[in-house]
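Technical note accompanying the year-one report. For the benefit of new consortium partners, we illustrate the data format agreed upon in the data management plan: each record pairs a sequence with a structure-token string. No post-processing was applied to the example shown here.
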Amino acid sequence: MATPQMIMYEDEFKQLNAILEKLLREANAKVIFLVDKNGQLISGVGETERFDTTSLASLTAGNIAATGGLAKLIGEKEFSILFHEGEKDNLHISIVGGRVILVVLFDSRSSLGLVRLRVKKASEELAVVFDRIAQRAEEREKAGDGDFPFAEITDDDIDNLFS
């Protein structure tokens, strides 16, 4: 069975952002991004204006895909956590609920141990929100309402909008 199309509503987006903001504070991070596995940015908090978020999201997804290939070569399912250490900044990348990628950028004001601890708790909270989104998508699919909320829009409606 194909995975149902997931649609996120404003209240869920606000819940996700609240979790990310809390993680930003508690981990003393500089910026946090939430990216889907296709490389699309879902949300970002902190010093996001410093970054080309489109490139960061797609490169992060590519990084996860590449390390997934490495994992399979050595007999692992996946590497759920990646860590990149730089001279000034560090990246902690983790897969949340098998669905999305959580990227935490931090510097010497924080530590890897603190980030890992806070990410673990935030990941559990994020997974609950994404489980709810997925459950609602499955319910819509079973009810035959899989194209919701755009099912009632016709080609004529689109033509009228742009004419």
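Partners are asked to follow this layout when depositing records. The chain has four helices and five strands.
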